[in-house]
């Protein structure tokens, strides 16, 4: 009986956690939307209060408005006029103390991760970490530049080594290109392998089992 209970748990647990996360995110969006409606009621005429209050009871309206707003923003900034306004907005926020440090850091990370021309998390590789003979999966995020590249000398790559089972935290490394082994698996397959702590085997694992044991970089 214990075996069947565990099997059933493994079936329902991922679904339950997925639903819980989605409801949590939806709750945050609805909370922000409710705050916006409250602020709107504070400045709107009294005759509109009832109509505004009725918007609170429409399920998922906050999510629809959020997605629609992002879509319209994307369409707007895709042309020259929108690009000009975006530069003005960036310049304004970059001149506000405290705000500029947070905004610029988040913008650099988001541009790197989500830009279609970026190289972040586009390649999964094998590296020896945290010591010689111990292998882990890492993701190439780019190449060192400026003073760092000059100090390193030889060709190096920037790597992100995620932790398991939470890949949103990890370590940033710069390693010689010669010590990095490219993998044929996709980034998604590598993330699944990491999150599952090796339980979900990537495709072609049997062919790559002997990989790290051969021709180890010195």
Structure in words:
- The chain has 218 residues and is of the alpha+beta class.
- The protein has three domains: 77 residues, no CATH class; 34 residues, no CATH class; 81 residues, SH3 type barrels (Roll).
- 53% of the residues lie in helices and 13% in strands.
- A five-stranded antiparallel sheet has the order 4-3-2-1-5, with helices on one face.
- The longest helix is centred in the N-terminal third of the chain and has 42 residues.
- The N and C termini lie far apart (52 Å).
- The C terminus is likely disordered.
- Keywords: Membrane, Transmembrane, Transmembrane helix.
Describe this structure in a few short sentences.
This protein is α+β, with helices and mostly antiparallel strands and 218 residues long.
List key phrases describing it.
single chain; 218 residues; alpha+beta; SH3 type barrels; 13% strand; membrane; transmembrane
């Amino acid at each position: 009986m214990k075996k069947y209970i565990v099997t059933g748990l493994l079936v329902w647990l991922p679904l339950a956690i997925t639903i819980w996360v989605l409801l949590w995110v939806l709750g945050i969006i609805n909370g922000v939307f409710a705050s916006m409606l409250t602020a709107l009621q504070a400045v709107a005429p009294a005759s509109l209060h009832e109509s505004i209050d009725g918007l609170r009871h429409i399920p998922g309206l906050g999510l629809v408005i959020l997605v629609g707003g992002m879509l319209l923003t994307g369409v707007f900034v895709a042309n020259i006029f929108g690009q000009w306004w975006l530069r003005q907005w960036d310049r304004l926020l970059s001149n506000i103390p405290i705000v500029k440090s947070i905004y610029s850091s988040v913008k650099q990370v988001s541009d790197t991760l989500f830009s279609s021309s970026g190289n972040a998390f586009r390649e999964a590789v094998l590296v020896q970490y945290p010591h010689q003979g111990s292998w882990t999966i890492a993701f190439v995020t780019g190449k060192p530049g400026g003073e760092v590249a000059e100090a390193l000398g030889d060709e190096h790559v920037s790597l992100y080594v995620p932790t398991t089972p939470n890949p949103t935290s990890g370590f940033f490394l710069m390693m010689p290109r010669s010590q990095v082994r490219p993998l044929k698996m996709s980034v998604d397959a590598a993330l699944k392998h990491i999150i599952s702590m090796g339980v979900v085997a990537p495709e072609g694992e049997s062919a790559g089992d002997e990989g790290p044991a051969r021709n180890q970089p010195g």
